Amino acid sequence: MVREIGRVESVLTTDNYVDLIAVELPRHDPANLLLIWLKEENVNAIKYTVFASNDGVTWETVKAETIIAKDGSTWESVSDPWIVVKVLQKASVGGSQGRSTCIISAV
């Protein structure tokens, strides 16, 4: 069963990485897989990265910096049993902000 656990829409980037979305998974209801869909909304290219943590303090990179072209989209998956997963975004080129939507689903 796939269930949506987080969504943000039309979020403008900045020149530095900032949290786009973070989801905390219930300890009693772990997901086998997280699916992350990220869409740039036909404004400007963006960069994103995905971090995960088991305590909300110590973070590990689970997806290195990647670029999404203007009007592009991508899927990422996280299969390790993390407690918190977050997606960060920034403008691909300083001063040329992009806008994105992100949906995270658990399987």
What features would you describe in this structure?
The protein contains no helices and eight strands. The strands form two sheets. Strands 1-8-3-6 form a four-stranded antiparallel beta sheet, with no helix packed on it. Strands 2-7-4-5 form a four-stranded antiparallel beta sheet, with no helix packed on it. The radius of gyration is 13 Å and the shape is globular.
List strands and helices in order, with pairings.
Blueprint: E1 3-12, E2 18-24, E3 34-40, E4 46-53, E5 60-68, E6 73-78, E7 84-91, E8 99-106
- The secondary-structure class comes to mainly beta
What's the end-to-end separation, in Å?
A: 6 Å
Helix content: under 10%
Radius of gyration: 13 Å
Poorly predicted segments: none
Strand ordering within the main sheet: 1-8-3-6
Number of helices: 0
**Can you count the beta strands?**
8
Overall outline:
globular
Which band does the percent of strand residues land in?
Answer: over 45%
User: What's the helix-strand series?
Assistant: EEEEEEEE
Tell me about the biggest sheet?
Answer: 4 strands, antiparallel
Average pLDDT level: 94
Distinctive features:
globular; 8 strands; 107 residues; mainly beta; four-stranded antiparallel sheet
